[in-house]
Design brief:
This protein is mainly α. The chain has two domains: 9-329, no CATH class; 348-453, Flavocytochrome B2, Chain A, domain 1 (Roll). Helices cover 47% and strands 4% of the residues. It contains 19 helices and six strands. The protein has helices at 9-12, 33-40, 58-77, 82-108, 116-127, 134-146, 161-170, 183-186, 189-196, 198-218, 221-244, 265-270, 277-282, 298-308, 320-340, 356-363, 389-393, 401-404, 413-420, and strands at residues 113-114, 312-313, 353-354, 368-371, 374-377, 423-427. The strands form two sheets. Strands 3-6-5-4 form a four-stranded mixed β-sheet. Strands 1-2 form a two-stranded antiparallel ribbon. A hairpin with a 2-residue loop joins strand 4 and strand 5. Helix 3 packs across helix 11 (221-244) and helix 4 (82-108) crosses helix 5. It is elongated and about 100 Å long. Its main location: membrane. Its cofactor is Fe(2+). It comes from Fibroporia radiculosa. Belongs to the fatty acid desaturase type 1 family.
């Protein structure tokens, strides 16, 4: 998610947007654009201890520093009454929704359509968060999505938590963000209006309005300024910043682990619902961030409510089938990782094929039992058998298939899996009809495979070898 910097740079562009901005900025970029930029456009010199102070974005640094200092001073010198506290929280959500429902989901991702009254409300509310104009903010955020975790990502999370959180605004970037088209926003009347009047709007919505409401409402002018104005602004800043940092660091990759975005309820709580970020990066045009009813996403509920009263329409939702594919992909990957950490029965194709006569001869030297056509060395298990050693001892050198498969006891999945680990050979012609499925251990009847593994297994067994591996 985009943030503050450089807020006042967008103020300087207070004139109507030029007509050329209506043309897609990425119309003629090469197919290998990222590699081309990294090869042909040199970044600014690296930051060192001797030049870091020259690389600071002084305007943004001043705005952030003053806002925090004013808030801290107010906390220690101005008492907070419950009315002002309630108004500060309410205005935090109003201006926060201006960013999440407006800047982010409406204009950056076009996840729904909003009526003109709702657009003007969200534009003014978002201005109260003082994070740049809609056009500037969305240009950076679209670049973030297109070039996630690359050098062209304006708040690349791979550069560290604090860089993604606030560093990218405090220090001048080493290279420009990648090209992102905002020609659609250049044609939007509300976006153009806000861009033109941005400076008076941030003063009015950021500080004047919250102060006036508390002052005229219950006579708390100072509290309105310091708490509903400055302190509330600090909270909105860091709420937004957390979508760049915390949402790329805390949680799990529920749909794709290719990039850094993660899903976590804590991030959702501090970002007004934008914390299910792995989902969002997979399905950016979905108006939701959280897809389950119990997940915290007040922005989703706000947009849905606006649709109910006719202020919003065409709420975009990705097909549930595609969402579940993403979830299944990660579930299968986790299962694959678990599967590869386990030891399974020896490969059938690697076991020697033994004649009945050879099996009986070798069973006189060590405890061998035939079950389902496989020869098993049960020496390590005889004293551990729940039914007693004698039930195994009497079947040494014999075929105990019937007894194992329900004749004496219908053994559990665990017993089947454990028995398969004792396989040391295959009895020539010894597999009974109808046991093909049962001869596969339950743990191996369903297997997670990479696509290149299909067809790699051979069905042929070794030729008869008069010996059994121990």
């Amino acid at each position: 998610m985009s943030s503050l910097a450089p807020t006042i740079s967008s103020v300087s562009a207070s004139l109507p947007l030029p007509l050329k901005d209506d043309q897609p900025a990425d119309l003629n970029i090469p197919d290998n654009y990222i590699d081309w930029v990294l090869k042909n456009q040199k970044p600014l010199p690296p930051i060192t201890w001797s030049n870091w102070w020259k690389r600071l974005n002084r305007l943004t640094l001043t705005i952030l520093l003053l806002t925090h200092l004013i808030s801290i001073w107010g906390v220690f010198h101005v008492s907070l009454c419950w009315k002002t506290a309630s108004w500060s929280i309410a205005y935090y959500f109003i201006t926060g929704l201006g960013i999440t429902a407006g800047y982010h989901r409406l204009w950056a991702h076009r996840s729904y359509n909003a009526s003109k009254p709702l657009q003007y409300f969200l534009a003014m509310a978002g201005t109260g968060a003082v994070q740049g104009s809609i056009r500037w903010w969305c240009r950076g955020h679209r670049a973030h999505h297109r070039y996630t975790d690359t050098e062209l990502d304006p708040y690349n999370a791979l550069k560290g938590f604090w860089w993604a959180h606030i560093g990218w605004m405090m220090i001048k970037p080493r290279r420009k963000p990648g090209i992102a088209d905002v020609s659609d926003l250049s044609k939007n009347a509300v976006v153009r209006w806000q861009h033109r009047w941005y400076l008076p709007l941030i003063i009015g919505m950021g500080l004047v309005l919250p102060t006036v409401v508390a002052g005229l409402g219950w006579g708390d002018w100072k509290g309105g300024f310091f708490y509903a104005g400055a302190a509330r602004l600090c909270f909105v800043y860091h709420s937004t910043f957390c979508v760049n940092s915390l949402a790329h660091w805390l949680g799990e990759a529920s749909f794709d682990e290719k990039h850094t975005p993660r899903d976590h309820v804590i991030t959702a709580l501090v970002t007004i619902g934008d914390g299910y970020h792995n989902f969002h990066h997979q399905f950016p045009m979905d108006y939701r961030s959280a897809i389950k009813w119990y997940q915290y996403d007040p922005t989703k509920w706000f947009i849905w409510t606006c649709q109910l009263v006719g202020l919003a329409s065409h709420l975009k939702v990705f097909p549930d089938n595609e969402i579940r594919k993403g979830q299944l992909t990660m579930q299968l990957k986790r299962l694959k990782d678990t599967q590869e950490g386990l030891t399974f029965a020896p490969d059938v194709n690697g076991l020697p094929v033994i004649s009945w006569e050879s099996f009986q001869e070798q069973a006189t030297k060590r405890p061998l039992v035939v079950i389902g056509g496989f020869i098993h060395d049960v020496s390590s298990f005889m004293d551990e058998h729940p039914g007693g050693r004698h039930l195994i001892a009497k079947n040494i050198g014999k075929d105990a298939t019937t007894a194992f498969f329900g004749g004496v006891y219908d053994h559990s999945n665990a017993a089947h899996n454990w028995l398969s680990m004792m396989r040391v050979g295959v009895l020539h012609g010894g597999t009974q009809h109808g046991l093909d499925d049962k001869n596969v251990p339950p743990a191996q009847r369903m297997r997670v495979m990479h696509y290149h593994e299909f067809g790699s297994a051979s069905s042929s067994a070794w030729s008869d070898e008069e010996g059994i591996g121990g």
